[in-house]
Amino acid sequence: LPVLRTGLVLAGNFQYLTGLPWAATAQVSLPQGLTRILLETPGTRRLSSQTLMDVRLSRAIELAPKARLELLLDVFNVFNSTAEERLADDNLVSQNFGRASVFVDPRRAMLGVRFSFSQ
C-alpha cells in the first residue's frame, strides 16, 4: 500500500480528572471573630469529574534551506466539557451553597504560525 505523505502532524492530550473534594461548612461568631467550622468530613462531596481532550494539527513548510514556516491549529476541550471547577460557597446556610461559580473553559480553537531560522 502506498503511504500518503502529507507532512501533517496530529498530536493530542487527554486528561481525566476526578472532581475536587469539598465539605459543608458553617460560620460561627466567637469572641475572636467569625470562624469557619467543618460540618462534614473533608472530601464528603466532590465536584464533577472532568474529561478534557486537546488536539493539535500542524504542517511544516520549508521556505529556504535555513528557514521554515509551521502552521498550527489547536482545538482545546474537544468534548466541550462543562464541569465546574469552583463553588460560590460551601457554607450550609448560604443561598449559594453548593452552587458552581467557575467552569471549565468551553471548546475553543487557536490558529498559529511559527517561523524557524537556523544557522
If you average the pLDDT, what whole number results? 93
Helix percent reads: under 10%
Compute the number of strand runs: 10
Order of helices and strands: EEEEEEEEEE
Strand content: over 45%
Task: Catalogue the unreliable spans.
Answer: none
**What would you call the structural class?**
mainly beta
Spatial shape = elongated
Report the major sheet: 4 strands, antiparallel
Number of helices: 0
Strand order of the largest sheet: 1-6-7-10
CA-based gyration radius = 24 Å
Gap between N and C termini: 38 Å
Q: Care to describe what's here?
A:
With 119 residues, the chain is an all-beta fold. The chain is built from no helices and ten strands. The chain has strands spanning 8-17, 21-22, 25-30, 33-38, 45-46, 50-64, 67-76, 84-87, 100-103, 108-117. It has a four-stranded antiparallel beta sheet, with no helix packed on it. β3 and β4 (33-38) form a beta hairpin. It is elongated, with a radius of gyration of 24 Å. The two termini are 38 Å apart. The mean pLDDT is 93.
Strand-helix topology:
Elements: E1 8-17, E2 21-22, E3 25-30, E4 33-38, E5 45-46, E6 50-64, E7 67-76, E8 84-87, E9 100-103, E10 108-117
